[in-house]
Amino acid sequence: MKLSEIKEILNADVIVGEDKLDIEVKTAFGADLMSDVLAFAKAGSLLLTGLTNTQVVRIANVLDIAAIILVRGKKPPVETISMARNLQIPILTTKYILFETAGRLYSKGIVGCLEKVEPGSE
Amino acid sequence: MNPAVNKSEDTLNKYSFNIEGGNFNDAGTVSTRIKSILKQKGLPNDVVRKSAIVCYEAEINIVSYARKGTVNLTITAETVEIEVIDEGPGIPDIEQAMEQGYSTANQQIREMGFGAGMGLHNINSYSDKFDITSEVNKGTFLKMIINNPQSTKDL
Amino acid sequence: MDIGTIAKELNLKVISASDKMKNIVTGGYTGDLLSDVMANSHEGDIWITRQVHQNIVAIATLKEHAGIILVNSCEPAKNTLEKAIAEKVPILVSDLPVFELTGKIYNLLAAAK
After folding, report:
1. A119–B52: do the CB atoms touch at under 8 Å?
2. Beta-bridge mates of residue B71
3. Residues above pLDDT 70, as percent of chain B
4. B96 touches chain A (CB under 8 A)
5. For the CA atoms of chain B, what is the radius of gyration?
6. Which of B61, B121, C8, C52 has the fewest CB atoms within 10 Å distance of its CB?
7. Does C33 touch chain B (CB under 8 A)?
8. A70-102, pLDDT tens digit by residue?
9. Partner residue opposite B116 with nearest CB, options C35, C51, C75
10. What domain range includes position C38?
11. Kind and range of the H or E element at A102?
12. Quick one: CATH architecture of B17-147?
C-alpha cells in the first residue's frame, strides 16, 4: 500500500515527506516503548507511536523504518521535524488513537511484523 | 581470497566513541555511526542490525544513568565486538537488573519511551556473547560480541 | 461483546480473574505509556499493552477497563499478577504483536456493532 493511501485511511497530515508519499508499505509496528521498537520492528515497516521526541527518528533511521505515524494528533517538536527532514524519514500525524489507527490499517490489509533475529538466522 | 588483504588486526577496524551522561539530544548518535561503519564495510544486514540494537540500548543506559562513557568497536573477519565502559553509579544487583521489567528509570526517561526494564534483556538476547561487570559508585563494563556468519575477510 | 468471547476468538491465555469473563468490552485502547492510558482510555475498554509493571493493574482498576491483554507472550511481573488476582482484574496474554492483536480486536468489535 502506498503511503498516500495510508494518509487517506487515517485522515493524516503530512509533517515531513510530502515528496515520499508514493513509497510502498506492507507491515506496521505499534509501540510506545523504544526498546520494543528496537527489539522487534522490521525494516521497511510503518512505526505507529505516541512518542514525538528525537529518539523516535533516530531509532527509525537505525532500523530503516519506512515512515513514522504519530497518533492522538501529536505534533512533534521542531528538533524532531528537522532531524526527520535531514534523514528523509516521513512523519504523518493522525487524530486517531493507536487502537483506531492500527485497527483501520489492519482492516485495509496492512499486516503486523514481529521479527526477532535469532542467532544464526539468515 | 588474497591473504594480503586480510587485515583483521588493522587499526582501521578499531573505533572509539565518547558518550556524555544526561545528554538525551545526542543519545543514539554513536549507534547511528556504528551502523553506517558496519554497512560501509559490507557486513551482513543481520549483523549490522544486531550491533546497532545492542549499542543503542547501551548508549541509552549511559545517557540515562552514568556521568560519561566510552564505546569501543572492533571489527574482525568473524565478529563485531562492542565494549561499553561507563563511569557512574554502577549496578548493585546485576541479576535483578537483567530481569525483564526491572528498572530504576525516572519519569523523564520513561516518558521518552525508555526505562521499561528491557534494555539489558535486549542486549543479552541480541548478542552472541554478552559479559557484564559492575562496581557500585565506579561504573559498569559491557562487552557484546556479534558473530559474522559470513566471515567478511576483505574488510 | 464480553471478554470471554474475545479470549476464545483470539486464543488468549487467561492468567487472572477467570471469573470475570462476562465483563463487557465497549472499546479498545492500545498503549504503553501509563500517563497516556490514564488520561485517554475509557471505561469498558480492553487495554492492549506490553507493559508488565504492577501499575497497569492500578490503572485498569481506576479506569474501569474490561481487562488487560499483554502482547508478544509477555509474562506479567510477579507482583503484577498478585495485584491482578487481588483486584479481580482480568489479564490475558496473546502471542501476537500489538499491531496485529489490535487489528483483530478492532475487527471483532466492529463486527459486533
Report:
1. no
2. B17, B84
3. 90
4. no
5. 16
6. C8
7. yes
8. 999 999 999 999 999 999 999 999 999 999 999
9. C51
10. 3-112
11. helix A98-107
12. 2-Layer Sandwich (3.30)
Instruction: Please give, one letter per residue, the 3-state secondary structure of B89-104.
Output: CCCCCHHHHHCCCCCC
Verify whether the Cβ–Cβ distance C103 to A40 is below 8 Å.
no
* Contact call for B25 and A121, based on CB within 8 A: no
pLDDT number for residue B11: 54
A121 falls within a domain: no
Which DSSP letter does residue B130 get? E
Structural domains in chain C (count): 1
pTM reported for the whole predicted model = 0.89
Cα dihedral sign for A71, B102, C15, A28?
A: positive
Residue with cell 492500578: C58
Task: Name the minimum distance, in Å, from the CA of B60 to any CA of chain C.
Answer: 18
Do the Cβ atoms of C98 and A97 come within 8 Å? no
Would you give the DSSP letter of residue C19? Answer: G
Using a CB-CB cut-off of 8 Å, the residues of chain A touching C30 are: 30, 97-99, 102
- Which pLDDT does position A121 carry in this prediction? 35
Number of folded domains that form chain A: 1
Coil, strand or helix at C100: helix
